[in-house]
């Protein structure tokens, strides 16, 4: 009888174990989990802090007992693998009571990623500082909230977990300050899309400090010292500045590691050491767009990888095709979703790319309670390859990013997005969905029907003497406009076109880019040099708070 | 100066006109619309009846004036084209005042589809009978409701418009009876998926009669005579038994027509008559999966076609690639969505196919207010080609069908569905989305890991002496079970397996198919002959009301 030992009993590990059992009734399957729980709802932890998830038991999706009964799995919690002998094919397991040796035929590592703890001066004295990875962590945070009744909290790091924890604490009545070293919150999306989340946080009463570093912790965690010298008083600190692969055991086993300490595996999830496999947040995968090594700490790829390695152990052919990294976070009433590469990543890779921003609706505008879905699409203007997309909105941002993530996985090009036939009835969508519209807009750029500039390029255009034209109505213009822009409403443009200079480049703006595009078409056909300000005043006013 | 005349000013026609203007400032563009409105919200009409859309003006998305101001379009409403001379390239236009002749360089027909009126005895005497196509129709219905205050209404035909109107009337307090000739409501989806809608209608107090024909109308519309001889009293009748292409003008022009009178066009939307193009509900398109001729009366393809023909007139290369027919309808708190081919269509085509039904959630089950998304996937078990999908649910059915519609358009196979990386955070999705799970289930069938039967095959299996096994808990089993099934809970199956016969085929059922699949894997590995009852008790109890 073959014995498979799986280290780590959450997403990847448990998907591997249950699939392996379904494929093989006779194999011995042992899961060793360091923590007290397996298969817990790790992505749900912040919502237990907020109180949205009321019962702690809801977090425990499976137990060792339920897994024994249904899948005949030998689940050993509160058990840590402290050594591996890959020649003898044994591991040493440490429990509260003892240390014992266990042999394996195959070892599957699914250790996950651990919160990064920066070497902040005074951090060891702060017993009000918490990170969030598992149920014991969330228990500590909830206990601290209940016992110390914090008035103020500081969240260091504005990634997904940071923002979810910030919202959860705010929902419990705590005054929250978010401190992020990067120029904007949500470093995994671009600055102008992150601005929607930033504004939503501020609108909900949170303080958001970007480009701000904490350099020390003083007063047993009651004071954070910033790089500026300024001090911030706090009763509770959440540290969420990213994760690192839990690679200690792999390193001990002599397994080859790669970038940022990630575990190197081949397409069959085999590490450099025979009969040891690895899956989940700790491994290095190929990015499906760049084909370069990357690490993607997300539940969906981890689950897929766990199942695939079970299939491979069960004798089936599977290959890890890599990941594109699709993610979403809720920030109060806004969702921010993304897939593929960001503009910043594309710039760093020196790819040729263009961007379109499209302002659409979650469903037909004439049906009640329509809300905005604002979509950013990044693509290659020569080949039409879709590089990535980001969306924000109260409702439906998830759907649009899921559609585009599917299109990217399928290798679709932007000219195929208008062809998509999506569900449409007034409560659910639009006859031309924002995804279709983004495809049209991208195709217009590829085919030279129109061209645009991004908001980040505006000051350069202004400096070079471009004529700045705003084609909204005077009423809209007076309510707020971008410095330097001259108002000439679209519906008067045909008659008053001669007021515009033919010897200057004209940058056209409107509310969100639709009318400026129409204007640009009129002007181009009349011999003007025109570029559309992508995202127009909507993006400008969002970025400028 | 070239003159393009567009006949029909709604989806396809108006998309053509506005795109053409953006491409060509100098061309003369005239739109001739028979009705009093252009660009109205045709899909929103039922929601104006219900009162959800409160303002009539919301239905009028554009007006001739707004289209003149922005796009320099010459929009002529209440104008009917009564003849075409394709040699002289002229048309005759009839208005309330006169008839005039207009020349064209290109003529684009976007006439749409009209409600089918069956030759029911007495129909001409029923002034309380209405069809629904445009704003004047909805005005008449709303006026009739307000003036005659109907207590009872009959909706003949249970397609999209029929069900939307039935719900809208019920929401206004009218007692509604739906009468459908086919064996189930929503003939565009399969019977077991339609059952969810049927039950929702009944739960909301409506009477639903299927396999029921109206043969005559008596008493000036106050009584409907059924084929059984039974009579149904009613104050108001909505007739919604499908649409027919509005092909009169095309026929007059000598344009070749095809199946069911649809207008034949080539990939460039050219009809058989030179310089006459056609788009929208009235044209015949290629079904992208079957490659056969079909007609698809939906807003999304019509809009795309209108834009594409404008591109072609503007000198760009476009091809009509065909359609797959993605649709959705809301039935009170349930949505029913579909894309591609149904099981019934696949049977008629004699395709090799398999089906899986997956019971999932709109978002993480441990996050509050999760609701069911029930997904049906149809595929080729040899090639993995995705033929179609249907989904029902309170929330998120649209998203799953959009994802699969995208996968179909991209030519993805079922083994690629588990690879999809979809947005996941507890309020938005699951780490393994129901779409991923459907892919896994289909792949299991393709690879022989498991096999299933459909509910429709159960009685045949019962008759042939199969052993029927229900692996739910005794508590679940006692609450309701399928006749002939024996209960043996999954968690006891390993110990009690010898109770089961090895010489009979075993059909395994549970709540929705997940536990029965796990059971089938245990049994198959122990030498039993097993098939999973797809959809299990959930589907059985839904179909059996």
SSE diagram, text form:
The structure is a homodimer of 545-residue chains.
Chain A: E1 3-7, H1 11-23, E2 28-32, H2 45-50, H3 64-71, E3 74-76, E4 80-85, E5 90-94, E6 99-103, E7 106-109, E8 113-115, E9 129-130, H4 135-148, E10 152-156, H5 160-171, E11 175-179, H6 191-203, E12 207-209, E13 214-218, E14 223-226, E15 231-233, E16 236-239, E17 243-245, H7 248-252, E18 276-278, E19 285-286, E20 293-294, H8 299-313, E21 327-331, E22 334-340, H9 343-349, E23 354-361, E24 372-379, E25 386-393, H10 397-409, H11 434-446, E26 452-453, H12 458-463, E27 467-470, H13 474-479, E28 486-487, H14 493-496, E29 505-509, H15 514-525, E30 529-533, H16 536-543
Parallel strand pairs in A: 1-2, 1-7, 2-3, 7-18, 9-16, 10-11, 10-16, 11-12, 26-30, 27-28, 27-29, 29-30
Antiparallel strand pairs in A: 4-5, 5-6, 8-17, 13-14, 14-15, 19-20, 21-22, 22-25, 23-24, 24-25
